[in-house]
């Protein structure tokens, strides 16, 4: 490369499941890949089954770049209307998103004004950074556990800002002593129940809150550490991102935990949208503005993550956005669900105190019930049982919700440990517990 004054880098998967060709054609330069597959036209008659699969008897046909050889389009565009003739909007349509955008645009100035005041009153901004989270009532126990665990370990949560999507979780956040801003107009209509599984309608709806909360704080000019509520800290992760001696990361605009998945819809970055650090600058502010504009695609795909990853790819190419994803094997600072469920060497290192881990993110886990059980046997559950499934008004009385009033009532000083599954990582051996994946026939402790 010494002779090159310009360098184009193309990411390609070597070893395609189908015979694959790549062609370079002399033309005006393009930074996009057009994909062609030997499969039939997609229509309502072949929507299911094996009629869409790649078949060498078909001619090559232009498709989206995330159409799989088995015929699944993982980035199918949203419809304008639920029923075109009646102009019914529905919930997963472009016209429905127009309504959400209108509410945002009509209120963004007043929201930013209120947020700026709140951040100043609570002294939330530290080193120009805010730790941002969003939660609804159905997931509030996980938020409570994060706060209780951090408090037990001596971490300061004064720079945490929560964007609740209902008044119950707003009261809970206040009771936990952390700054909370309830954007009732844009987020108040989102569901308050817990997602039963990844990608269900409640999960998909909550993705809109994940877009707005980061955009709001970034528009105020502050860096953001965004994290899901199913996280515990071993060390304050801001000390990592603020370490000026770590020059290798200082030039990146945005840095992500590795998701661990190699699914095409997460390529080429496999960035986990549940834990990342973003610097406030015009590139990242426009990235999250663009993500807001793509709200209908997020609803349709049921994934904030896959849309964000594709925008990372586009904005990196178009605007020079500098993106970093921490390698899931070469770095051990930010382990997640991939490591918990598959990389047990990493988990043994954490348990033995031999890891550099700052956090544990309980991603890759089907529902809140299992997250709670996994945290308990990892020795990372600090929320008292009487506070699980109860809102702040029941615990303190509606007129007695005070700043931090839930901490002594709900937070255990020591971890609440219990065994549940012998085939999942645990702080102590659980030989008498059942397996959650009996078909695999393995145990964490030999």
Any chance you could write out the topology, listing elements then pairs?
Blueprint: E1 35-38, E2 60-63, H1 94-122, E3 129-135, H2 140-152, E4 160-164, H3 167-175, E5 179-180, H4 184-187, H5 201-219, E6 223-227, E7 231-233, H6 238-241, E8 254-258, E9 271-278, H7 282-293, H8 295-301, H9 304-319, E10 323-325, H10 337-341, H11 344-351, E11 359-361, H12 368-377, H13 392-396, H14 407-410
Low-confidence stretches: none
Structural class: alpha/beta
Relative strand content: 5-15%
Which radius of gyration do the C-alpha atoms yield?
23 Å
Specify the biggest β-sheet: 7 strands, mixed
Summary keywords:
two-stranded antiparallel ribbon, alpha/beta, 14 helices, 11% strand, 446 residues
Could you explain how this protein is built, in words?
It is built from 14 helices and eleven strands. The protein has helices at residues 94-122, 140-152, 167-175, 184-187, 201-219, 238-241, 282-293, 295-301, 304-319, 337-341, 344-351, 368-377, 392-396, 407-410, and strands at 35-38, 60-63, 129-135, 160-164, 179-180, 223-227, 231-233, 254-258, 271-278, 323-325, 359-361. Strands 5-4-3-6-9-8-10 form a seven-stranded mixed beta sheet. The chain has a two-stranded antiparallel sheet with strand order 1-2. A two-stranded antiparallel sheet has the order 7-11. Helix 7 crosses helix 9 (304-319). The N and C termini lie far apart (49 Å). The mean pLDDT is 91.
């Amino acid at each position: 490369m010494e002779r090159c004054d310009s360098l184009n880098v193309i990411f390609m998967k070597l070893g395609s499941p189908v015979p694959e060709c790549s062609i370079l054609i002399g033309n005006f330069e393009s930074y996009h890949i057009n994909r062609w597959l030997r499969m039939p036209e997609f229509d309502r008659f072949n929507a299911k089954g094996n009629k869409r699969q790649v078949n060498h008897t078909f001619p090559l046909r232009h498709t989206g770049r995330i159409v799989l050889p088995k015929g699944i389009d993982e980035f199918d565009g949203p419809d304008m209307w639920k029923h075109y003739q009646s102009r019914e909007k529905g919930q997963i349509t472009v016209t429905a998103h127009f309504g959400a955008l209108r509410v945002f645009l009509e209120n963004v100035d007043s929201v930013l004004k209120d947020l700026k005041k709140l951040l100043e009153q609570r002294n939330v901004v530290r080193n120009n950074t805010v730790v941002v989270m969003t939660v609804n009532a159905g997931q509030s126990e996980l938020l409570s556990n994060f706060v209780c665990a951090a408090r037990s370990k001596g971490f300061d949560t004064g720079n945490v800002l929560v964007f609740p999507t209902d008044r119950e979780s707003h009261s809970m956040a206040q009771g936990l002593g952390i700054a909370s801003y309830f954007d009732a107009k844009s987020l108040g209509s989102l569901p308050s129940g817990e997602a039963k599984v990844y990608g269900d309608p409640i999960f998909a709806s909550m993705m809109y809150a994940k877009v707005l909360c980061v955009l709001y704080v970034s528009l105020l000019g502050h860096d953001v550490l965004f994290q899901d509520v199913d996280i515990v800290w071993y060390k304050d992760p801001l000390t990592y991102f603020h370490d000026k001696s770590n020059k290798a990361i200082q030039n990146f605009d945005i840095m992500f935990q590795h998701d661990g998945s190699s699914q095409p819809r997460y390529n080429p970055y496999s960035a986990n949208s549940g834990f990342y650090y973003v610097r406030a600058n015009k590139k990242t502010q426009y990235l999250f503005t663009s993500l807001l504009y793509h709200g209908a695609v997020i609803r349709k795909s049921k994934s904030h993550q896959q849309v964000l990853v594709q925008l990372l790819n586009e904005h990196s190419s178009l605007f020079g956005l500098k993106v970093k994803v921490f390698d899931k094997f070469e770095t051990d600072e930010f382990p997640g669900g991939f490591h918990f469920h598959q990389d047990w060497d990493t988990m043994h290192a954490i348990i033995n105190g031999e890891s550099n881990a700052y956090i544990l993110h309980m991603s890759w886990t089907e529902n809140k019930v299992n997250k709670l059980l996994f945290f308990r046997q990892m020795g990372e559950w600090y929320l008292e049982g009487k506070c699980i499934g109860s809102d702040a008004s029941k615990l303190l009385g509606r007129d007695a919700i005070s700043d931090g009033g839930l901490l002594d009532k709900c937070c255990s000083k020591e971890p609440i440990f219990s065994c549940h599954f012998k085939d999942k990582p645990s702080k102590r051996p659980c030989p008498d517990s059942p397996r959650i994946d009996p078909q695999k026939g393995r145990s964490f402790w030999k």
